[in-house]
Amino acid sequence: MTTLTSPHDLLAAIPFLIGYHPENSLVLVALKDDTVGMAMRVDMPTDIAPESYDLLASHFVREAAEAALLVAYVDAQTDPEPVLINTSAALLRAGISIKESLIVSDGRYRSMLCHDSECCPPLGSPIPDIDSSRIAAEHVIAGHPMPFANVSGLVQSIAALPSAMEESWQREVQEFWVEGDSENLLDLQRDGATALIDLAGEYTQGRGAEDRELAARVIGRLSDIQVRDFALGSHNDETADAYWQMWRDLLLIAPRGFVAPTASIFAALAYERGEGALAHKALDRALADDERYSLALLLRRVFTAGWPPQSFSAMRAELHPKVVAGIFG
């Protein structure tokens, strides 16, 4: 994303950065060399300890941010000024300057930093139309979708399709379940990895999951941890978009009992793409399917800690050759 040069730019950018138009939220955007970095959204805090604000600031220190942009989205009955003041203080203690601090409420916004009544009227200014903004045009040209109207739309975008509930489809996927003590475990793992490569090839050619049996094979074989770890590291920069579409499609049709692996892999890819909110919602689906699924629990800790996506990508790329050697020798 290019630099943000005005409050209009910031307000237009945030829905793209987090994937939807926020409500009852505190949003923090990191800046480094005047370029937008990490965006963090939390529910609007109330009565939290001062050290909790320092924890928010620590994520920006880890990001090596030089400055921050703050926006509070609240209803007319909520006073966000104490939260913005405390957040700003924590960031300043960490050596991070505050470039802007906005309050958005009831269709208007006002700045906590600007006191010129001519450009910053006390009652605020109307929120600009996102569709006509420069930021929206840049994202659309880059191939990014318009943000969802709210978090419910984001959740619905990865909800199971009715076909995922069909008994015939569930039986078809179940046929490819991998038992951990199977006598031919290595053959099954190789079959799963090969199926994944074949299906990904379909997506890179623009065809999608037209082969129903192949899609069932991939979803079913992901029940094996080795196959899942192979899948986690299979994409690269050139194939990331095709894999993104593939994992989203598979998540929509994964039947009950097979959602956790697919959702976890999709969450990892979403996090790498900077779509943190979507990554967390995918983990919600994973843990709803299996509340003790180890990869989903690990990813939740990683995402919550604000681990840089680049570090996660590097770790995944480093582990993948070892997984490949374990399956194919």
The first-level CATH class name of the largest domain:
Mainly Alpha
Count the beta strands.
6
Percent helix among the residues? 40-55%
Label the CATH architecture of the largest domain: Alpha Horseshoe
How many individual helices?
A: 14
Strand count, sense and barrel status of the largest sheet are: 6 strands, mixed
CATH topology of the largest domain, by name, is Serine Threonine Protein Phosphatase 5, Tetratricopeptide repeat
Name the poorly predicted regions: none
Written as H for each helix and E for each strand, in order along the chain, the element string is HEEHEHEEEHHHHHHHHHHH
N- to C-terminal separation? 42 Å
Could you say which overall geometry the principal axes of the C-alpha atoms support?
elongated
Main sheet strand line-up: 2-1-3-4-5-6
Average predicted confidence as pLDDT: 89
Structural Rg:
22 Å
Going by helix content, strand content and strand pairing, the class is alpha+beta
Whole-number tally of structural domains: 2
Percent in strands? 5-15%
